[in-house]
Amino acid sequence: MSGGAHTPGSAEHLVAMANDIGNYFRPQEREEAIAGIANHIKRYWTPRMRQKLTAYLAQGLGGDLDELPRAAIDRLNDQTPAAGNQPAGAAAR
Amino acid sequence: MQSIAEKDLGTPARTSAKMVTLTIDDREVVVPAGTSVLRAAALAGIAIPKLCATDQLEAFGSCRLCLVQIAGMKGMPASCTTPVAEGMKVATENKAIADVRRGVMELYISDHPLDCLTCPANGHCELQDMAGVVGLREVRYGYEGANHLKAEKDTSNPYFTFDPSKCIVCSRCVRACDEQQGTFALTIQARGFESKVSASQDDPFMDSECVSCGACVQACPTATLTENSVIEKGQAEHSVITTCAYCGVGCSFRAEMKGEEIVRMVPNKDGHANHGHSCVKGRFAIGYATHPDRIVKPMIRAKISDPWREVSWEEAIGYAAGELKRIQAKYGRDSIGGITSSRCTNEETYLVQKLVRAGFGNNNVDTCARVCHSPTGYGLKNTMGESAGTQAFDSVMQADVIFVIGANPTDGHPVFASQMKRRLRQGARLIVADPRRIDLVHTPHIEADYHLPLRPGTNVAFINSIAHVVVTEGLVKEDFVRERCEWDSFEKWRALVGDPKYSPEAMESVTGVPAAAVRGAARLYATGGNGAIYYGLGVTEHSQGSTMVMGIANLAMATGNIGREGVGVNPLRGQNNVQGSCDMGSFPHEFTAYRHVSDDAVRHSFEAAWGVPLRAEPGLRIPNMFEAALDGDFKALYIEGEDIGQSDPNTQHVTAALSAMECIIVQDLFLNETAKFAHVFLPGSTFLEKDGTFINAERRCSRVRRVMKPKNGYADWEITQLLSNAVGFPMNYRHASEIMDEIARLTPTMSGISFDLLDRLGSVQWPCNAEHPEGTPTMHVGTFVRGKGKFLLTEYVPTNERVNVKYPLILTTGRILSQYNVGAQTRRTPNVQWHDEDRLEIHPHDAEERGVAEGDWVGIASRAGETVMRAQVTDRVQPGVVYCTFHFPDSGANVITTENSDWATNCPEYKVTAVEVTRVSQPSEWQKRFQEFKKTQEALVQPDVFVK
Fold it and tell me: Which residues of chain B lie closer than 8 angstroms to A21, CB-CB?
């Protein structure tokens, strides 16, 4: 899981990671599984990782992303507001 | 030789609630029932002479010095072996007793060297003391008869000397090896005058089964067994209590000092985790602090091909801060991050994550737990509500069934293993689930009831098959589950594991474990009384690591083995402060005490305390940092006390990521593998050189105390503070205690912890707050932290890492007693005499098929890379499985491990790598490049930066 034959850092790697998460939640009821995957990604992935995967899918790529994690990504994108102001770090001030 | 600072009360304490009143020398004494007369007298301030008795060991009654007279009892019983009785009247001194004692001492001294003034024990020798106490004035036997004065010394062990000419055959050393350590390496050979202490079959200590824990040395009342450091330097004049910086047991030690020089480390008898015991590492392997490799001056360079330039602290910090600001300005706020240390104190770790969150303005902070027990945090938090083990170490003494899964405690947690072995010798039952036949399976007086040698990568299939037996044979503790757990989650889990596909019979072909053994083990765990599970990285370092932790928690809840002493789910955290570094908010998604960064109330409390807004989104984990570096998005890293260049999987991937960054700041003791890619080297301090706290595997927070000035000039927390001020986020702590005070203010589960409390209590297990002012040894008593325990579904998903024709064997990895993790410390001590290279364990069948013999060089190739080690042919591993340690960077163990990782936490799947093994005659290409790179990098360091 999470690696295999994919190039780490590539969007394919993110697809593999999402599928692995999906495999864990798969035994649950569908709605529960989608919510679980979405919640996991939201809690543990950086915004950039989510954006990268979303952009990859938007290009029509990532055909091997399983259905459950795909639904979860869609749900997250529906929920996420447009990127707003974020606090500046001291080093960047 | 016992500690200079501790009093010996003669025999161990007893903890009976029933009290007994007796009279000793006309003084009324009240003690718990079961206490010896010797100890009762000592507690009353009456020191009955003794030699073979010590309060660390059960009474033996051999020296005949502690004789007393007791009204109504014939003769002169030994006070060490005589328990107190209600109304007993004891006389400890009269002429008759004194004559006998003098006679005993005469016999001892008649066969003992009289070189007291030049003896290393002079002034601290119990034999010398007793000669004085009994008033010995002459030895009427003379000294011309047969004696042992010319017995030869054994200097084979690098840390202590055995001088049998001084031995009084009190058997303390033998008993220490038996009772405290559990190795049974020593015996008294022969009888009468010929009696002598013998290691194994009268072998030199170094060739024997001795594991060099030093318990015998500490127990010895004379100079027979003495630390070489005492022989060389003399005895200490003061001691300071501190905590070991090696493994997750967190042994308490007395650092015995002469001025600022350490003479020796002696385990603290009052240590709550170790009770006066230690292992070879903590007691003896501290020489790394002054090893010639240690760098004590800051260095900088622009490119890693440049020579290092020694600079002042001001210049080094200014350069590092300047680079961090430049990189953020150019590449964005998320382009830098930090890695905290599981080797440094809680206070230091807290400051690094604070610097990253508040100073850098992102949450790109992570810690070494990523690669070891992050699944523990995830799995236990989601099932029970807290990211930590449930028990204290002492709980094992109430266990009836001990279930060890994927752990090797005699090597990884040796002092706790000694305690576990004591319980097993008392009759507790043992189940071991491990691909290898670890030492615990068959060790003196201990035999596992079940050794279940499962195939690496099949943990969840295995635990589900155990659970299948529990749910289908009516072994669930239903009352407990109904009262304490979410019943609907239990029903779903029961349906899953109850499916015939998870029966032991169906899973046998998957796991390789015979069905009958699985059924027997499951029944034993579920019905054998208090069942306690202890697990290690053989559980977590898998692609289903988190799932397996959940499976363990499910099993414990289903069998009612939670919420009291003697049971529980016990992750054996590997490092001295890995628990602490996680507790301190080192994960990219959590503040202290595992509270998510998106939790508004929690985040606002930190914002208010730190005076800056904080990010609500998770940051990068270490593996993600590498990926982002290779993508060109992540350009700088501040690394405190971690050697990701050696410890993380797929070394070539890691070094490529490091090479892609523009500024790597390494804060460490040595030029480690990561530092060879660094641009700023900030010399760190050792645990001997700073104040702070560690938190061990049982959530126990203990003090680390400074015993000498930092050779590099600053404690590690002071360096982080300097850097933080330089990047523009002010920090003004004057002492480490102020950092802990801040942690306590911001962390409800630790609100009661302070240096004052720790000075008063010695140590405390969190939660420690108003509700639990003296800490919490046992978690989830009455109710789980999350309220009701939750059963989580644990479907078995095989790993992607499959064997095939090209890679037909599975490699798994682990630790050895004498070396520690990446070996940065222990490789720089005489511990290399026990283990001077990583070796590949291979089963005789697999070895024969490949023409490999013991000691042959073998190439180990995986999909990730190739390396070469020497072969060790052994049937401790099963056919199809090979095993190696990872303590030496040039063995390249992580060149061959892959990026497969746990689905939930990205904890690398170190324990499952498909490989092939072939005989070779030269190092691998990677190893050749490694040696060249190492030589080049070492040549770039000027000699003046090393410790003198």
Answer: 903-904
